Amino acid sequence: MAPMGIRLSPLGVAVFCLLGVGVIYHLYAGVISNRFAAFRQRRKVDLRDLLAVSVEAAVLGGREVKLVREQNGLKEKSKGHTREGASEPLTMGDLQSHRKMFNLIKNTFPEVTVNSEEHDNMVDKVTWSRDIPADILEKIEGGKDVPPEALTVWIDPLDATKEYTENLVKYVTTMVCVALEGKPVIGVIHQPFTGFTAWAFVGQGSNMRPRSSYSVNPPTMIVSRSHAGEVKSFIQDAFGNSSSVIAAGGAGYKVLSLLEMPSSDADSIDQADVYVHITFIKKWDICAGAALLNALGGYMTTLKGEVIDYSGTPLNKGGLVASIGVDHKALVEKLPDWDPEKH
């Protein structure tokens, strides 16, 4: 008897082929998946590039802020009230600056979390010029690569909006801050109406420096225009009636008042020894200043001297005290007991 052969119908051939493909897929799917996972893990952000993009974003936002103000196109409205009851204005300067700043950073580093004071659904295709400013190239080494999920970027498209609406433009800044694992490592504060940009990369370098001397006996304190009277009594409880208090707008401006400004811009900035804020404040207002101070050997803490975490929710509830060139711990110990949540 002749041996029996196995004959497959066309349908059987198709099933056999599909089974073969399935076996091959299962054999290699795990390998391919692992390789894609490894590729994702290798994708990092160079912090020098992110610093350059942050500077470019602050400058682009600043141009929008300046243009809207000069064209008197503010279209001011209220976006609500602060916890203390003060109206929070919103202008076209805030929105147009936000669109440039937010989209430039997200278009360049799409995997990085970016938190902005403003919210807007308009997409801008703005892209990074790939330019790294000469002073950054000179002072900062490349290759400081970190995973994007470790980063949080805070942007303030227009700090001191109230003063902006009053044409008190010297207080106005645009700011970008990069926090790594909740710690501020890159800070950029740009002044749209003078064109000056302060930047710092903690542990790497800055285009700023401390002043040659500071005093806390008594200090000159810089505080918010919105709470000047209340803060003044708080400060005088700590340092006596001879303490000098400067009321100013904008958290970015207040940090710059603690630092040595270029001679061409020095006349436009008040000089203070300590910056104090006794109510709630948002992290996009203070993160860039914290990075600048930290890079130069200064401090920004809560009123109780606690480190501020720049990840998670935007609200800092502990108030703040910022200083450089003085004993920060001794400064904090002089402050009266104060709970911002009760005021």
TrEMBL record:
PANTHER family: 3'(2'),5'-BISPHOSPHATE NUCLEOTIDASE 1, INOSITOL MONOPHOSPHATASE 3
Cofactor requirement: Mg(2+)
Species of origin: Larimichthys crocea
Lineage: Eukaryota, Metazoa, Chordata, Craniata, Vertebrata
Record key words, sorted: Hydrolase, Magnesium, Membrane, Metal-binding, Transmembrane, Transmembrane helix
One GO-annotated biological process of the protein: phosphatidylinositol phosphate biosynthetic process
Pfam family, one: Inositol_P
Residues annotated as binding Mg(2+): 117, 156, 158-159, 285
Name of the molecule in the record: inositol-phosphate phosphatase
Family (UniProt): Belongs to the inositol monophosphatase superfamily.
Catalytic activity line of the entry: a myo-inositol phosphate + H2O = myo-inositol + phosphate
Annotated spans, Disordered: 71-90
Bias-annotated ranges (Basic and acidic residues): 71-86
UniProt membrane topology term: Single-pass membrane protein
Protein localization: Membrane
Pathway note: Polyol metabolism; myo-inositol biosynthesis; myo-inositol from D-glucose 6-phosphate: step 2/2
EC code(s) of this entry: 3.1.3.25
GO cellular component, one term: membrane
